[in-house]
Design goal:
The chain has about 280 residues and is an alpha/beta fold. The protein has eight helices and six strands; from the N terminus they run ααβββαβββααααα. It folds into two domains: about 15-200, no CATH class; about 220-275, no CATH class. Strand 3, helix 3 and strand 4 (about 120-125) form a beta-alpha-beta unit. Helix 1 packs across helix 5 (about 185-200) and helix 6 crosses helix 8 (about 270-275). The protein is elongated, with a radius of gyration of 27 Å.
Length: about 280
C-alpha cells in the first residue's frame, strides 16, 4: 500500500514502496524476486506487472492500492507489498487484501472452484513477529489435526530484512540483506541497484513522487489544523461543563431543589447528585 513518508526522491531506496513498485515494472526482476521467495514454484512466464492496482468493491468499502500485482502462466496471483514501517496491523491487512483480491478474481456466475491460487507477500524491514526469522509463511491449518490443511490455495508470507538466522536460501538472504543496507556481490542485487539508479533518472516518476509527497505534507498540515480546532471546541465544552457544575454547587448551597436546578441549568439528576458530593 502506497505510503509516502517525507523523504526526498534522492534519499529513497528500494525499501520505499513507491520506488519498489516502479522497479518491479521490469518483469524479469519481479519474476526472479518471486522465485527467490518461492523457490518451490517454477514460474514459466509472468504477465506484465500491474503496479499500484486500485481495488474497491463498493462505495462503502475501504479502498486498497496494491504495490505489485502480477499473475504467472498458471494463473497464480501474487501481491507483493513493501513495508518499511511496522504499523501493528499487517496480519489483518493481509486478510483484507486477500479478501479484496478474491472479489476481483471471481465473476458473478463463476464457481468458487475457479478462484485462483494466490499469495499475499509483505516485505518488512522489521521483525513483526519477534521470532528472529527471515520468512514467516501462513496457511490455514486445522487446530485439532496439524497435518490437515484447508487447501483453499491462499498463502500469506511475511519477509523480515532484520534477521541473522540461517533459515532461507542464500539468494533470498542476499536480497533481504540488501534492503537492510548490507553489502553483497549477489548478481540479482547488483541488477536491482542498477534498476534503482535508472529509476531515479526518470523525471516523470520523480514528479509523480514529489506530487504525492507534497500532497501527504498538505494532508498532515490539514490534520494538524483540524486537530487544533477540535481541541478548541473540546476546551470550550470542558469550560462550559466546569462553569455549569460551579453554578449547580452554588444553587445547592442556596437550597434550590433538584427540579429547579434541572430546569435552569439543563442538567441531569445524576450530575446534580455528583455535584452535591462536592458541596
Amino acid at each position: 500500500m502506497l505510503e509516502i513518508k517525507g523523504k526526498s526522491w534522492e534519499e529513497i531506496g528500494l525499501s520505499n514502496d513507491f520506488l519498489f513498485g516502479k522497479v518491479m515494472r521490469n518483469p524479469k526482476l519481479c519474476k526472479e524476486l518471486l522465485e527467490r521467495i518461492l523457490p518451490e514454484l517454477k514460474i514459466e512466464y509472468m504477465e506484465y506487472p500491474e503496479l499500484q492496482k486500485p481495488i474497491k468493491e463498493d462505495v462503502d468499502a475501504r479502498s486498497v492500492r496494491l504495490d505489485v500485482y502480477v499473475r504467472d502462466g498458471e494463473g497464480t496471483v501474487y501481491n507483493i507489498e513493501m513495508q518499511a514501517v511496522d504499523t501493528k496491523e499487517l496480519p489483518k491487512r493481509s486478510r483484507y487484501y486477500q479478501g479484496m483480491i478474491d472479489l476481483q478474481l471471481l465473476d458473478k456466475n463463476q464457481s468458487y472452484k475457479e478462484l485462483n491460487k494466490s499469495f499475499v507477500i509483505f516485505i518488512c524491514m522489521q521483525d513483526i513477529f519477534g521470532k528472529g526469522r527471515h520468512k514467516y509463511t501462513f496457511e490455514n491449518i486445522c487446530k485439532e489435526d496439524r497435518e490437515l490443511l484447508l487447501k483453499d490455495e491462499t498463502t500469506k508470507i511475511f519477509l523480515n530484512a532484520d534477521s541473522s538466522m540461517d533459515d532461507v536460501s542464500r539468494e533470498l538472504k542476499a536480497f533481504l540483506d540488501y534492503l537492510a543496507g548490507k553489502e553483497t556481490d549477489d548478481r540479482y542485487v547488483l541488477e536491482l541497484e542498477e534498476a534503482v539508479k535508472n529509476a531515479k533518472k526518470n523525471r516523470e516518476w520523480r514528479h509523480e513522487y514529489m506530487t504525492l509527497l507534497m500532497r501527504d505534507q498538505e494532508n498532515q498540515e490539514i490534520g494538524k489544523e483540524i486537530g487544533k480546532e477540535i481541541g478548541k471546541e473540546i476546551g470550550k465544552e470542558i469550560g462550559k461543563e466546569m462553569e455549569r457544575r460551579k453554578i449547580i454547587r452554588k444553587m445547592l448551597r442556596q437550597g434550590f431543589s433538584n427540579e429547579q436546578i434541572m430546569m435552569l441549568c439543563d442538567t441531569t439528576e445524576s450530575e446534580i447528585e455528583s455535584c452535591r458530593e462536592e458541596v
